Amino acid sequence: MAIVKATAGAIRVAAEHLREGRLVAFPTETVYGLGGDATNGKAVAAIFEAKGRPRFNPLIVHFADISGARMHAEFTPLGLRLAEAFWPGPLTLVLKRRAESDLCDLVSAGLETIAIRVPDHPIAQALLEAAVRPLAAPSANKSGRVSPTQANHVQMDLGDRVGLILDGGPTAHGLESTIIDATGEAPILLRTGAVPAETIEVVLGQTINRAVDAGDKPLSPGQLASHYAPEAKVRLGATDVQEGEALLAFGSNVPAAAGPMINLSATGDLIEAAANLFAALRTLDQSGTKRIAVMPIPEQGLGEGINDRLRRAATPR
Fold first, then answer.
1. What's the rounded Cα separation, in Å, for the pair 136 and 34?
2. Structure letter (DSSP) for residue 257
3. What is the pLDDT of residue 227?
4. How many whole angstroms separate alpha carbon 76 and alpha carbon 193?
5. Helix (H) or strand (E) segment spanning residue 277
6. Domain closes at, from 210, 244, 275
7. 149/189 same-domain check
8. Angle of the 151-158 helix axis to the 270-286 helix axis, nearest 10
């Protein structure tokens, strides 16, 4: 598997890979995605196999624009409002699938809905336009592990399971897309992410309901209890560092740590912390530590998405 700089020529080669049913990893504004032709059953099955992903866990399908998305999904008035406000961007909508859609059934994991978005990244956009087809693209990592925000993260996780990795540098947001169920009149938050819930509520002028625990039947990606997990055990809400622990810090009031330490944001900036989260977890995990202590992070704005990922990373597995 080769990591190649995402030049115009490399993007054309990657698009040919996709049209022929092979997998390509590429950057989005959130994390790196493992892309396959969403209309090709073998390609979609290869995504699940490469990640070791349970087949009951649906995938997000990426489109170049809203017109392409409307060919496959039944947009409600709520869905249209959200798409017009946040696309292209890190918001995924769950909508009913059109009966005439030629998307592979496996992307929906047996559900009557599909999860869709239009990414806001020049490389992702160029690849979608060159491939001339929608791309199923979950995060390009082993299922349940820490999401990749750099091309080398993909290579470390997936090895030769993907034919080509387009390198576009570190991703901007560092958190996956926010996912909203827009099948009805009231929005339901299925996954916190790069668009804070408060921002969506301001745009809509209404409160977003939170989804109940999906258990082992997720309605969208990112709902499994144990997810985004390093090999090391994770201890949340840490105000001290115990012997043998690495520290994932936040803010300026950092406890003394004898072992490895990374501060997500010394100034307490949640945007910076979100962008650094997954890379920091990977770096601490690779230090050889068996436990990672995580300092408290405010449960507001992007902090809600950061804490969601950390709680899932800390869930026993």
1. 8
2. -
3. 66
4. 22
5. helix 270-286
6. 210
7. yes
8. 40
Q: What is the pLDDT of residues 211-267, one digit of tens each?
A: 765 555 656 666 555 567 789 999 999 999 999 999 999 999 999 888 999 999 999
| CA distances (Å), origin 279, targets 37, 39, 104, 255 | 28, 32, 32, 21
C-beta of residue 111 within 8 angstroms of C-beta of residue 181: no
| Domain edge (last residue) among 210, 244, 266 | 210
Give domain status of residue 216, yes or no.
no
d(CA 187, CA 93): 10
CA dihedral over 194, 198, 200, 202, signed as positive or negative: negative
Structure tokens at 148: 């990749």
Q: Which two tokens stand for residue 54?
A: 């349970």
From the list 239, 314, 305, 245, the residue with the least C-alpha distance to 275 is 305
| Count of structural domains, the chain | 2
Note the pLDDT of residue 294.
Answer: 97
CATH classification at residue 90 = 3.90.870.10
Domain annotation covers residue 217? no
Q: Is 121 domain-assigned?
A: yes
Q: Model pTM greater than 0.85?
A: yes
pLDDT along the chain (317 residues), means of 10: 91 97 97 97 94 88 97 98 98 96 91 96 98 96 91 92 94 95 95 95 92 61 66 94 95 91 96 94 94 96 92 85
